[in-house]
Amino acid sequence: MPTWAPGSSRTGAGRAAARGFTLIELVIVIAIVAVSAALVTLAIRDGYEAKLEEEGERLAALLEMARAEARVQGTSVVWLPRREEGNEVDPNMQFRFVGLSDRQPMPTRWLDAETRAQVVGANGVVLGPEAILPPQRIVLMLADRRIELASDGLAPFAVARP
């Protein structure tokens, strides 16, 4: 029969011999932490990519607003991005809508000042007044990221998924 006096051993029949964690338990905890960290890292979105998607969705909505206004007015409306040469009337203007009335002013700046746009195969995007337009594509760039907005001429502009 064991005694529990100071200096006696504490090994009893119903008691574990050692305290602390085993090596296997430590390895399992480290593996769980590593997998959790990897999943969190994958879940965090790239800031530039999120900004570019927001710019794309905003531009698609603006283009559709201008397209509807062009059809209502019966006039031709063109969206023009700022050219890199800087031949624009206002140097702060990053894009503009030509042909819309002044009663509904449209934005002329990107949400992020570093965003750039290029119309594929043309200088600008024709938005009306016809119901069916030629297919058109716009490439938006921010840092090293790129997305495309596209319309087949009948459908609204939308971010083109690869």
What can you see in these coordinates?
This protein is 30% helix and 19% strand. The model has no long low-confidence stretch (mean pLDDT 84). The chain is rod-shaped. It is built from two helices and seven strands, in the order ααβββββββ. The strands form two sheets. The protein has a four-stranded antiparallel beta sheet with strand order 3-5-6-7, covered by helices on one side. The protein has a three-stranded antiparallel beta sheet with strand order 2-1-4, with no helix packed on it. A hairpin with a 2-residue loop joins strand 5 (136-142) and strand 6. The chain has helices spanning 23-43, 47-73, and strands at 78-81, 95-98, 116-119, 125-126, 136-142, 145-151, 158-160. The protein is of the alpha+beta class and 162 residues long. The chain has a single domain (47-160), classed as minor pseudopilin epsh domain (minor pseudopilin epsh fold, 3-Layer(bab) Sandwich).
